[in-house]
From TrEMBL:
GO cellular component: membrane
PROSITE patterns: ABC_TRANSPORTER_1, ABC_TRANSPORTER_2
Domain ABC transporter: 5-245
Protein name according to UniProt: ABC transporter domain-containing protein
CDD domains linked to this entry: ABC_PstB_phosphate_transporter (cd03260)
Keyword ATP-binding part of the UniProt annotation: yes
InterPro entries per record: AAA+_ATPase, ABC_transporter-like_ATP-bd, ABC_transporter-like_CS, P-loop_NTPase, PstB-like
Organism: Ferroacidibacillus organovorans
One Gene Ontology term of the molecular function aspect: ATP binding
Gene Ontology biological process terms, A to Z: phosphate ion transmembrane transport
Keywords associated with the record: ATP-binding, Nucleotide-binding, Transport
Amino acid sequence: MGKTVTAENVSAYFGTHRVLNDVSLTMQANQATAIIGPSGCGKSTFVRCINRMHETVPSGKMMGKLFLEGKDIYKMDPVTVRRNIGMVFQRPNPFPTLSIFDNVAVGLRLNGYAKRSVITDQVEKSLRMAALWDEVKDRLQKSSTGLSGGQQQRLCIARALALEPDVLLMDEPASALDPISTLRIEELIEEIKQTYTIVIVTHNMQQAARVADTTAFFLSGEMVEHGPTTQIFTTPRDQRTEDYVTGRFG
Ligand SMILES: Nc1ncnc2c1ncn2[C@@H]1O[C@H](COP(=O)(O)OP(=O)(O)OP(=O)(O)O)[C@@H](O)[C@H]1O
């Protein structure tokens, strides 16, 4: 089951440049939370703080607290954090030298799964969950590079789901995809949020409106407003949110 992620007064820096300023936000278990806002407002940095990727950048620094179901993420082992908090990126990034099967199995093997039948079952389960199984079941040993962009992105989602994380972070997961593949990813989000907590960064406001239970609007490193998605898009409390969602800037 998904777990709740809570950010308390999170600030993030690249060197001395502060790109997130005192962000507090609760991302509820088994819901999809969308993060919207203009380019450069800190959306990606925020999700990268959640799974401790921000600290892998040499100048990256984070202040404040992040909790996974009440447990301090920054007191956990980073490898455990990234296992429990999976991530899907803007551009599909399957391992090009690996087969479709091995792309999903690799994380399982690295995490100590050795029994072949267990790995095979988990690969199938993950590919089914990512709505890719029927398209690839007859070519599991073929290279992932033969898949379309949308299929590659669903493969990356299957790879992330194979380890059964609590949370799935999605950083503009459909921005490189055609409308049909985008729709499939959105349907998939709807499906998997029963089991996972989803945090999705998106530039596409229709997409946020379609998939997210709640939406948070970021501006210049600050979290301006967070609420039920319909409220954010129809009756925002803050003028800056209204200007953004009605296309007056951004
Ligand atoms: N590796 C880096 N080194 C230095 N500054 C960075 C780095 N990555 C991002 N930044 C800066 O941090 C700020 C926030 O960037 P971030 O990528 O989090 O924004 P974003 O809202 O996700 O933008 P976009 O919508 O364009 O992806 C920007 O000013 C950006 O220039």
